[in-house]
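Aim 2 progress. For non-specific serine/threonine protein kinase, the working sequence is reproduced below.
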Amino acid sequence: MGTVWLAHDELLDRHVAVKALLLPESLTAAEREEALQRATREAMAAAQLRHPNIITVHDVLTHNGLPTIVMEMLKGRDLKDAVAAEGPWAPARAAALGLRVLDALSAAHAHGIQHRDVKPANVFLTDDGRVVLTDFGIARLEDQATITESGLLVGSPGYIAPERLRGERGGPASDLWSLGATLYSAVEGQAPYTGTSPMAVLRDALTRPPRPPERAGRLGPVLMHLLAREPYQRPDARLAAHLLRQVAEGGQGGQATAPLSSPLSGPQKGGGRGPVLVGAGLVAAVAAVAATVALLPRSAPTTPHPTTTARPLVATTVTAVPAQTPSATPSATATAARFTVPVDVCALMTPAQVRSLVPKASPKGETEGEGCAWTAHGNGVGVVPVEPVPLESAWGRSVDEATEKFVNKLNGAESGEAVQWNWPDIGLEKRIVQERKAYEEVNGIGDEAFSYELLNSKGQVERHDVIFRLSNVVMQIRYVDVKKVGDNEAMRKGARDAARWVAAALGRQG
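Predicted structure tokens for this construct:
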């Protein structure tokens, strides 16, 4: 949106940066006028803020009919260039930077100002150790009328919150989403959404969850919490600061925040694109694509409510990242649900299929709540519809509600949360605590599926789980065979075979 020049303020005898606005030649007269007014709002917004992590605006001038903004001169480089040159950052270092950017955003939000373009290129690292949030070029004052006559959406692909892509006004939570995307880029070396074109990136941000981070470590669940699809699912600034501080301090209270100069992991080329002006027609086209795909809200897993089932199929307790209570917001993209009444889960596998998994079990299975289990001593397969929170029937929900439940389960598997479980019906009376390992997305089971393993202290697989979604129902398959402990492939095959058979039988009924 502009070119920055080095200049000298002769009156005050200081070096300054002067940003001269540049406009694409393809803009219409209305779009050009809106862009000019936006630049003026940048100066108005930023000039109100005095904070060590926000760039200082000294003045706004008019040159050749265009706004020209005079700002403090910063020496250093932005986060985008730093990651491209040095490689992805260590999670603690990224979390420490995130705390400073969050502090700047909180100060702006307290003045009723949204940044609306938080991205690595707008986070500047000065040579003297400051972290400075720059470029309030598309900031908006909450009490100022929005200029939307041309239908433009301005921002950077991969860093625009989904609600803004849907044409909503957005708010502080939108800036927190962009902060999450920025920190994701710092530790992964690329934005959570990338593609061959801005259109592809915008489409994916509207319709798909972000790629699970691979390098983020303990920062990973925090990033996925910030990148939740709906604003109400994200942490507020206070909770976000708490979560980032835990990562920056290595989980040890009272330790100093990890310095920004801490060692880096191996090099990886950074990614990213410049800002784009998205016309109303393009946004509508992307929205039309989104309307045919269930939105996947990404949030950190919520703490389960106590179950009231008399005898749960497998008793489980999960330690989860705190999440805010969602409010009831009907989805405009909801599709028709296939399942409106409970299905007899015990009829979803044939006797021959049951015998291949649990040879000594009764082929009829045993109903437990809304699920079913086929068990023998040391061996069992359980199939249970995943219930919503608060507890109610797992059948008859909307597709969006089921999708949210599926993604919350996915987040838990990605984070490697500890699971406490037992299964008395196969002889495992004592509750044990194990971590989820080997998370993997699985193709060809329902509409979407993933699997994970629970390992014993020797690193052997003791249980393999598959969770899949088919339309508006989420199913969990748990498979145990003590005779196959250590044979990871056999355990994986048993669980996935069961999941495929159940999904196929459900597909014939729905």
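Residues 18 and 487 are 65 Å apart (CA to CA). This observation will guide construct design in the next reporting period.
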